[in-house]
C-alpha cells in the first residue's frame, strides 16, 4: 500500500492529531484503515471498541486482528450503513478525497453517529503554496503520494469542506493542521523553488498557505459543542545567525531560525543565542534575495550591548533600509562574550505598504529640502 508506514505519535502528523481527539473506551468506526496502524493503537492503548471498513483485502486481513468487526469492501457500497450504529467517533484519515461522492457518505454517517459524537477528518490541502506555484507555472502535477496523489478524485481547501459538512447536517467544532514549508512538499522534492522574492512575499501572506493537511472535527448541528480553532497559520520568515569566535563568519557555524509574522509583511525575531566560546561578533541575516526595512535591531549580553553595523543601507528617520539582495546586521561586542545573547530584530520585507511608506518618506524629505 502507498501509505503503509508506522504510526508515529512523537511528531505533529495527521494521525497523532486525530488520536488526541479520541477518549478511551469509545466506540469508533474507522474508514480506510489500511493495515490498521491506528486501529491497533486505539484498540490496545485506548481500549476502544473498533469497527473498520477497508477495500484492499491484504490490508483488511491485517487490520481486522485489531477490530471487533469489519467490512472488506468499498465505502461507496454502503454495506456499513445498516450494520452498525451509535458511534462516538467516525474517522476519515485522508479518505474523503478518494471517494466519488463524499457528501452522501457524510449524510449516512449522521444516522449512525451518537448525538454527542464526532466525525474526525484529515484531508490534504490543495491550496498549499507549492500547488499554487505549480499552477502559476501552468502545471497541475500529479504525484504518487501527497497533495496531488494520482488516486484523488476530489480536492479540498479549508473553506471547501465546510459547505459539504453543513449540507450533511454537521458544523465544524475543531480544526488543526500539519504544515510543510513552501518548497517542502513532494511537488518540489530535489528541486529549487522557481519563484522570485516578490512572489514569495505574497505567498507568505496566505494564512494557510503552508498547511499540508487539515484535521477537522465535525459535530451534529443541533448538538454541537464550543468551537475551538488554532491561530491562523501564517508561515514564519527563515533567518540566519552567524557567530564569530575569532575566525570570521562561516557557513559551518550558521544557525537557521524563524522570525514570527506580526503584521502584513512584518516579522520579529526575539530569542536568546548561547555562545559556544568567546563571541566577538554576531551576524543576523533577516532575509535572502531581497532588501528589507529595519524597525529594531538589538543584541546584548548581561554586561554589554552590541553595536549594530549595516552594509549598503539608508537611514530613514528611526528606521534603516537595508538594500541589495543579501542584507545583514553585524552586532559587534566591545568585549568577548561567553554567555547568553539576547537578540531582537524586527523588519519588514518589500510590500505595497512598505513601498507606500518609502514614497511618503521621500516626499516628506523633498518638501523639507525645498524649505
From TrEMBL:
One Pfam family recorded for the sequence: Methyltransf_23
Q: Which InterPro entries match?
A: SAM-dependent_MTases_sf
Its Gene Ontology molecular function terms?
methyltransferase activity
Query: Gene3D superfamilies from the entry?
Result: Vaccinia Virus protein VP39
Q: According to the lineage, what is the superkingdom?
A: Bacteria
Query: Is Iron found in the keyword set?
Result: no
Could you mention a single GO BP entry for this protein? Answer: methylation
* Coiled-coil stretches: none
* Name the record gives this protein: Class I SAM-dependent methyltransferase
Query: Which source organism does the UniProt entry give?
Result: Candidatus Eisenbergiella merdavium
Amino acid at each position: 500500500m502507498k501509505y503503509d508506514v508506522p504510526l508515529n505519535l512523537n511528531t505533529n502528523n495527521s494521525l497523532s492529531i486525530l488520536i488526541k481527539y479520541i477518549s478511551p473506551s469509545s466506540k469508533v468506526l474507522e474508514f480506510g484503515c489500511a493495515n490498521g496502524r491506528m486501529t491497533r493503537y486505539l484498540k490496545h492503548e485506548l481500549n476502544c471498541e473498533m469497527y473498520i471498513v477497508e477495500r484492499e483485502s491484504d490490508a483488511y486481513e491485517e487490520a481486522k486482528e485489531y477490530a471487533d468487526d469489519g467490512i472488506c469492501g468499498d465505502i461507496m457500497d454502503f454495506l456499513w450503513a445498516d450494520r452498525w450504529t451509535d458511534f462516538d467517533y467516525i474517522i476519515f484519515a485522508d479518505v474523503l478525497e478518494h471517494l466519488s461522492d463524499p457528501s452522501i457518505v457524510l449524510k449516512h454517517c449522521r444516522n449512525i453517529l451518537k448525538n454527542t459524537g464526532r466525525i474526525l477528518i484529515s484531508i490534504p490541502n490543495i491550496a498549499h503554496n507549492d500547488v499554487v506555484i505549480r499552477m502559476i507555472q501552468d502545471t497541475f502535477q500529479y504525484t504518487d503520494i501527497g497533495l496531488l496523489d494520482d488516486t484523488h478524485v476530489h480536492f479540498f481547501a479549508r473553506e471547501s469542506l465546510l459547505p459539504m459538512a453543513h449540507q450533511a447536517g454537521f458544523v465544524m467544532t475543531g480544526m488543526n493542521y500539519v504544515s510543510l514549508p513552501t518548497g517542502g512538499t513532494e511537488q518540489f522534492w530535489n528541486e529549487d523553488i522557481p519563484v522570485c522574492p516578490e512572489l514569495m512575499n505574497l505567498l507568505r501572506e496566505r494564512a494557510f498557505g503552508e498547511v499540508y493537511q487539515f484535521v477537522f472535527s465535525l459535530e451534529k448541528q443541533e448538538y454541537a459543542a464550543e468551537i475551538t480553532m488554532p491561530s491562523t497559520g501564517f508561515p514564519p520568515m527563515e533567518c540566519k545567525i552567524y557567530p564569530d569566535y575569532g575566525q570570521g563568519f562561516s557557513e559551518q557555524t550558521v544557525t537557521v531560525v524563524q522570525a514570527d509574522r506580526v503584521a502584513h509583511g512584518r516579522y520579529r525575531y526575539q530569542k536568546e543565542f548561547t555562545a559556544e566560546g568567546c563571541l566577538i561578533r554576531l551576524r543576523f541575516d533577516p532575509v535572502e534575495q531581497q532588501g528589507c526595512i529595519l524597525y529594531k535591531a538589538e543584541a546584548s549580553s548581561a554586561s554589554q550591548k552590541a553595536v549594530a553595523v549595516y552594509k549598503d543601507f539608508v537611514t530613514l528617520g528611526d528606521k534603516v533600509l537595508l538594500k541589495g539582495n543579501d542584507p545583514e546586521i553585524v552586532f559587534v561586542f566591545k568585549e568577548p562574550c561567553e554567555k547568553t545573547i539576547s537578540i531582537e530584530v524586527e523588519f519588514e520585507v518589500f510590500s505595497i505598504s512598505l513601498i507606500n511608506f518609502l514614497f511618503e518618506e521621500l516626499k516628506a524629505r523633498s518638501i523639507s529640502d525645498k524649505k
